Q: What sequence folds into this?
């Protein structure tokens, strides 16, 4: 029986697809079934995997979701368009401002609203700072998943706090920004904010160097990540992998470059790509992305123009977009975050759908883990970088 | 190791490396925009001076629906522009500030109080009108710039109203 | 962004896949994202064509979701001439059209290779109760696997040919489809200090249970 | 018990500290709480922040987060408890070592919070297990968690050493997944909401 290739014609019998081949274990051997989670220190929340083990090798892995299913979509269909904005903060709670942007962009598309230039700059600055927060905490959690408890996480959170201070003085809350509005941003930058932000951005390369010297050539990190969980490019595309994990497999697809939404075409930055698609690439690509992010932040903080931050014509309360639908997406730190809205011309969305990158990136988790050791499952899961608020919504 | 040692030594030598905040002895200095739960602003008198006119816009717009308002009525049963009951269930409130944004009278603002944990989950977490009413001076003390701007807007409104009234008097 | 119009894609599909039912559904809103309604019978072939055609190369299924359209009555006012007492009168008349309910699966396809998209593809079931089976596109797009499971979980569309169709978010023996518009949530409104509208009605029913209470001064 | 407060403070000024077994035990207990490492949602991130350098939960003796419930005596329910998760939370609570305490952190854990209208969201973990301290906020600042911890320490200080406090806490029944909802939908032994009359 020839397994059909991933890009070939659709297989009529799903049992023949390569993923449902069991990875060549001795069928007489006793399999050990382990349930990892939902309460587990390294599952980043309440994620659960049912794993079947042959010795230490993973032969089956079925993720179980829903332990944090908070019915975001159902609630959003019952509140006004504006009322859903604070809920988007709580999707991926590391990156509330990117979520805000994606949702605002979808409503702007749905209702045809423009955004003033200063607001576009603020959106770029805040969501790139969000990317720094996310990748920094990712490194901390990733390393503590590998057993380096404390140190790296402690350093990462120290840097994160600096950016959270910026967010707090801008949006009023450390994590839940609820900052962007349809047609702009809720309020202008407070006085002195730009200088403070510049200071943080200028201090960041030193921190990245420090982290990199801790991680990049660390023997334990290398032996636990290189050649572990390899993901070929064609499989990643077919499995709808997005974000850093996709680019670590060498696929050049960054929505900031492809869609050129907002004002991203004004900045010069490169899209880092990986060669091997293994855990090490997925880990190191975050470093490179952070350095590129700094390349966006510096000119953005320098060139930000004066002006209004809200489109004066844009309505927030009682917004009734014309009948129709819209799908808008942004490059969130974890991948493609999209919002799909259907309007029936009332003040509530008829259908509100979040395209969660964290959930869809997990589609290939089983493929990555098959044949690896049980201890590597945590590393592979760590490098995919999920947040349960977004996986289960 | 080297990096750990460097950070360890820096925590003794460099003041900016001393990042631990000595709460509760030393309270954090919150930025002006910081928000936690809403409160109601009154001018001068905590009862009559309440800016809230019980228009119920915030009640309607609150995404988790945690505000409950009953309008005051006078002896004849006619509605008065005052809330009789104004309850906010802070065990539901998500500090989103939408009530503040939609209020046309600048009557509801965000407080910065956060030491609210309690042993009882029911009564202490429902803030009633008495608990919510705070003076304009208090508002100035936590959001100085914003409060000054609001005062200016309100003064302008009052002046315009007075002007309109004068004009109407002159006409008649 | 999209050099290929949805119209021309529809034409190509009709040409390449014989007997394909493809209908263009225009989007009235300002976003201008039109969609293609494709028939369930040839859906897998159409998807494979969209993925493999060198011009189109929609190799990436970004978003899969369900939409519930319950049975509804559309009221339209039309001007009609009527003969009343021998005189011809022009009057407005309300015409009611009944649209039967159905469930819809919506796919947003992009091309990573050629960097275009989105192409919105819709599939519709026959009704909302018995005839709820659609072909699964997971054999073509692996990325649709969990999302189709989610649609099955929340809307109750059965995907034929899906390798592992189980509930994704709710527990296994959960009986309802909670994202449908006519879902009734369980009654747990015993303590509602700030109730409104529907919640108020439900909370009142619990208040009636026992007479002793704090009491509202109102 | 025998020494009154006035005499005690007088003695302590002289450098003599008088205590009794109960106070000593509670003092030791309150300053060595072992929380369960158990994050549910957004609030868990603030909980982690509280343990990190900036806020440093270790100053309150509660930094040893244990991944196993058997080694923990403080459950911080940090985040939304969904109906799918609720049986697991109750089970974890049952497995914890006595005497045990529960802090419900954030709006969602207290009452379901902003998500309370959801079909899969439990309206407060106190429907199934007894809660000692509730922290409102969405999410509460790390300082608020520290404040709650101090509240809890005060409560522990007042604990009795008598047989009623030392007795093992009764196991809370674990709810089962039903066809429409959890069964039962609450534990009447621990959940006593006050009646509030509205809309009359």
A:
């Amino acid at each position: 029986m020839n397994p059909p290739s991933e890009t070939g014609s659709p297989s009529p019998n799903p049992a023949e697809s390569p993923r449902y081949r069991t990875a060549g274990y001795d069928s007489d051997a006793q399999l050990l079934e382990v349930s990892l989670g939902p309460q587990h220190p390294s599952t980043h929340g309440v994620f659960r995997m049912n794993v079947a083990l042959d010795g230490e090798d993973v032969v089956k892995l079925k993720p179980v979701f829903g332990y944090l299913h908070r019915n975001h979509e159902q609630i959003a269909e019952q509140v006004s368009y504006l009322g859903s904005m604070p809920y988007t903060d709580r999707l991926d709670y590391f990156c509330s401002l990117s979520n805000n942007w994606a949702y605002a962009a979808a409503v702007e598309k749905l209702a045809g609203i423009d955004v003033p230039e200063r607001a576009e700059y603020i959106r770029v600055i805040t969501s790139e700072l969000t990317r720094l927060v996310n990748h920094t905490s990712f490194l901390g959690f990733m390393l503590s998943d590998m057993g380096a408890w404390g140190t790296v996480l402690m350093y990462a959170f120290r840097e994160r706090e600096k950016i959270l201070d910026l967010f707090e003085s801008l949006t009023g809350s450390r994590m839940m920004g609820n900052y962007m509005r349809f047609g702009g941003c809720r309020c202008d930058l407070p006085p002195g904010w730009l200088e403070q932000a510049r200071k943080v951005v200028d201090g960041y390369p030193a921190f990245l160097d420090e982290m990199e010297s801790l991680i990049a050539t660390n023997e334990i990190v290398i032996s636990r990540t290189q050649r572990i969980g390899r993901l070929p490019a064609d499989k990643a595309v077919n499995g709808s992998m997005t974000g850093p994990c996709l680019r670590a497999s060498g696929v050049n697809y960054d929505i900031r470059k492809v869609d050129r939404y907002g004002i991203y075409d004004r900045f010069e930055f490169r899209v880092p790509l990986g060669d091997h698609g293994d855990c090490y690439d997925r880990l190191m690509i975050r470093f490179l992305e952070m350095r590129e992010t700094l390349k966006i932040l510096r000119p953005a903080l320098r060139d930000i123009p004066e002006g209004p931050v809200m489109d004066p014509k844009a309505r927030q309360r009682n917004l009734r977009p014309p009948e129709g639908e819209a799908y808008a997406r942004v490059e969130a730190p974890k991948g493609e975050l999209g919002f799909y809205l259907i309007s029936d011309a009332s003040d509530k969305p008829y259908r509100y759908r979040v395209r969660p990158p964290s959930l869809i990136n997990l589609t290939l988790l089983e493929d990555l883990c098959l044949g690896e050791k049980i201890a590597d499952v945590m590393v592979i899961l760590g490098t995919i970088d999920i947040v349960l608020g977004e996986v289960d919504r | 190791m080297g990096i750990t040692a460097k950070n360890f030594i820096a925590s003794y030598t460099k003041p900016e490396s001393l990042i631990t905040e000595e709460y509760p002895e030393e309270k954090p200095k919150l930025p002006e925009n910081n928000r936690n739960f809403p409160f109601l602003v009154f001018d001068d008198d905590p009862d009559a001076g309440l800016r809230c006119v019980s228009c119920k816009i915030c009640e309607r717009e609150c995404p988790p629906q945690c505000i409950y308002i009953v309008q005051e009525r006078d002896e004849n049963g006619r509605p008065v522009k005052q809330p009789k009951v104004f309850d906010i269930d802070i065990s539901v409130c998500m500090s989103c500030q939408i009530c503040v944004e939609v209020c046309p009278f600048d009557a509801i603002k965000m407080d910065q109080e956060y030491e609210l944990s309690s042993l009882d989950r029911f009564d202490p977490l429902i803030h009633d009108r008495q608990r919510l009413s705070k003076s304009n001076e208090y508002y100035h003390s936590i959001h100085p710039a914003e409060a000054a701007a609001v005062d200016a807007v309100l003064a302008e409104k009052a002046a315009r109203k007075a002007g309109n009234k004068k004009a109407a008097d002159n006409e008649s | 962004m999209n050099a290929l119009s949805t119209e021309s894609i529809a034409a190509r599909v009709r040409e390449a896949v014989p007997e394909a039912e493809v209908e263009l559904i225009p989007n009235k809103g300002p976003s201008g994202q039109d969609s293609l309604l494709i028939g369930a019978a040839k859906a897998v072939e159409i998807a494979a064509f969209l993925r493999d055609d060198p011009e189109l190369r929609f190799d990436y299924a970004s978003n899969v979701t369900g939409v519930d359209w319950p049975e509804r009555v559309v009221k339209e006012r039309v001007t009609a001439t009527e003969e009343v007492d021998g005189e011809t009168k022009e009057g407005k008349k309300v015409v009611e059209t009944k649209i039967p309910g159905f469930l819809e699966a919506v796919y947003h396809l992009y091309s990573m290779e050629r960097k275009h998209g989105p192409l919105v593809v819709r599939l519709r079931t026959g009704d909302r109760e018995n005839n709820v089976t659609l072909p699964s596109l997971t054999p073509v797009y692996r990325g649709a696997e969990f999302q189709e499971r989610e649609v099955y979980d929340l809307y109750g569309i059965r995907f034929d040919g899906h390798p592992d169709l189980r509930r994704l978010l709710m527990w296994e023996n959960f009986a309802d489809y909670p994202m449908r518009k006519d879902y009734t949530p369980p009654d747990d409104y015993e303590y509602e200090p700030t109730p409104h509208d529907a919640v108020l009605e439900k909370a009142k029913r619990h208040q009636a249970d026992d007479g002793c209470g704090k009491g509202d001064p109102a | 018990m025998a020494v009154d407060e006035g005499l005690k403070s007088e003695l302590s000024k002289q450098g003599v500290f008088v205590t009794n077994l109960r106070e000593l035990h509670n003092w030791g207990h309150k300053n060595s709480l072992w929380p369960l490492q158990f994050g549910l949602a957004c609030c868990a991130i603030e909980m982690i922040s509280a343990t990190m350098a900036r806020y440093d939960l270790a100053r309150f003796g509660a930094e040893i987060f244990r991944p196993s419930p058997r080694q923990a005596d403080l459950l911080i329910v940090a985040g939304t408890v969904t109906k799918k998760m609720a049986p697991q939370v109750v089970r974890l609570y049952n497995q914890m070592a006595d005497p045990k305490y529960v802090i419900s952190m954030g709006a969602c854990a207290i009452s379901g919070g902003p998500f309370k209208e959801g079909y899969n969201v439990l309206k407060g973990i106190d429907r199934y297990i007894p809660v000692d301290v509730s922290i409102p906020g969405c999410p509460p600042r790390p300082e608020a968690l520290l404040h709650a911890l101090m509240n809890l320490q005060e409560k522990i200080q007042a604990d009795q050493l008598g047989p009623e406090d030392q007795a093992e806490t009764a196991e809370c029944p674990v709810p089962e997944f039903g066809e429409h909802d959890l069964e039962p939908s609450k534990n009447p032994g621990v959940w006593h909401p006050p009646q509030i009359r509205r809309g009359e």
In short: Chain D has one domain: 19-158.
